[in-house]
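Summary of Year 1 activities. Much of the first year was spent building the evaluation harness for sequence design. The harness presents a backbone, in tokenized form, and records the residue chosen at every position. We chose the following record to illustrate the format because it has been used consistently in internal testing since the harness was completed.
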């Protein structure tokens, strides 16, 4: 890349690496560079859509993947990604029209119901059908694992996922980021499925110098307006439930650079970005933890359902704010 910054294969490799590791803010510059180099590549637009999808920006992802399919209607992975965006956006009519006369219609409809209608009954016949598939006839996208993960068959889903990871199957390379697999995060052993030795601190930032400093500091009126917009976004969209939420995602929604978002939160709320987001996650945890319908879930499972993606971060933040451990708080507040 130092010799040729426009090297397509190098740009694609770095983008995919950062996506797999969940470093979306680092993947975006390379994805955008790919579009600069080849703006008519359907695959490049699909890649950008995939980043937005993993960030939980399903509207943006849908816009990008639609353009990818305009450039290449035969791009099968883009077709599935559009299905997923429509499922998460609960666009039932558009979804039904899009999947008409396509393969795996039964799986697609079942996944839509599981996510949007909380229909958790997976027909035994379809599970038998999947079990009969030979290894060379597996699905390009693992609908079986996604469906089982969002039903009462999470243990089976976890077992299948582990098997695919052990086999180094390409379909699940981004399993940690995949929204359909979030129910598996609470299962004991999920965090041990695979560990990367690479940290974002090991990577030199590619951001331009002007992004490193906050130019044109926000005035009081701007802070008030943006504060209201930020609060509305967190109330209506609940982005804090996305464990991959980061500064870059919020910056894109408010159409500001990362440093201005950080400055805004610091000035308006006197906290940093992580504490701001975790305050919402903690409030959500306390709400669902006292719900009798969730009594079967573990404390860690409730934390993951609230957007926390690390046991250590959850316990540390909880003790910092509440002054007691989560278990002690649960005991004191249980009826």
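For this record, the design step produced the sequence shown next.
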């Amino acid at each position: 890349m130092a010799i040729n910054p426009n090297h397509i294969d190098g740009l694609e490799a770095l983008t995919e690496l950062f996506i797999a590791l969940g470093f979306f803010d680092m993947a975006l510059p390379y994805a955008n560079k790919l579009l600069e180099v080849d703006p008519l590549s359907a695959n490049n637009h699909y890649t950008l859509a995939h980043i937005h999808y993993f960030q939980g920006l399903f509207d943006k992802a849908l816009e990008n993947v639609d353009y990818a399919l305009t450039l290449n209607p035969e791009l099968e992975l883009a077709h599935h990604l559009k299905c997923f965006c429509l499922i998460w956006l609960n666009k039932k009519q558009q979804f039904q029209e899009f999947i008409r006369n396509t393969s795996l219609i039964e799986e697609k409809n079942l996944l839509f119901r599981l996510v949007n209608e909380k229909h958790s009954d997976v027909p035994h016949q379809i599970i038998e059908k999947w079990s009969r598939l030979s290894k060379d006839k597996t699905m390009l996208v693992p609908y079986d694992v996604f469906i089982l993960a969002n039903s009462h068959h999470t243990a089976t889903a976890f077992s299948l996922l582990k098997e695919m990871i052990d086999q180094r199957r390409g379909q699940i390379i981004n399993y940690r980021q995949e929204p359909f697999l979030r129910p598996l995060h609470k299962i004991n052993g999920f965090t041990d499925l695979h560990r990367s030795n690479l940290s974002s601190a090991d990577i030199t930032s590619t951001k331009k110098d002007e992004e490193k400093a906050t130019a044109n500091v926000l005035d009081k009126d701007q802070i008030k307006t943006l504060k209201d917009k930020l609060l509305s976004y967190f109330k209506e969209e609940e982005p804090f439930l996305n464990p991959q939420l980061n500064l870059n995602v919020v910056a894109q929604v408010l159409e500001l650079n990362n440093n201005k978002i950080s400055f805004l939160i610091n000035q308006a709320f006197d906290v940093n970005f992580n504490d701001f987001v975790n305050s919402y996650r903690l409030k959500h945890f306390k709400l669902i933890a006292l719900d009798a319908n969730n009594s079967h879930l573990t404390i860690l499972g409730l934390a993951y359902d609230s957007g926390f993606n690390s046991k250590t971060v959850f316990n540390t933040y909880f003790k910092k704010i509440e002054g007691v451990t989560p278990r002690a708080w649960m005991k004191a507040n249980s009826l």
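Confidence is low (pLDDT under 50) at residues 205-216. Quantitative recovery figures across the full test set are reported in Table 2.
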